Amino acid sequence: MQVVESFYKKEIASPQAKSSILSGVMAQAADPTLLPAIAQKVIDANPAVVAEYKAGKESVMQFLVGQGMKESKGSANPAALREAFVSLLR
Known about the structure:
The chain has 90 residues and is mainly alpha-helical. The chain has helices at residues 2-8, 15-26, 34-45, 47-54, 60-71, 78-88.
C-alpha cells in the first residue's frame, strides 16, 4: 500500500517503475480457464442461491459474483466473472 501512496504522491519518478506499479495494481484476471473454475466452485458451495437464480431472481447474481471475487482475492474481473456464471448457469 505504501508503494501505491508514493506513486500517487508523485514520489516515484521512473517511467518503468510507474508502469510496473500500474500493471500490478490494475491487473485483473480474465483467464478463460480460471474464471469458470472459480464460478463452478462458488456454484457448488451455494446451491440454494443457484436455485433462486434459476427461479428467476437475477439479483442473486451479485452475491455469486461477490463470492467469486472473494475466492479470487479480488483479482478477477467482475464482468468476466459474471459472464462465467451466466454461461455455467444456462
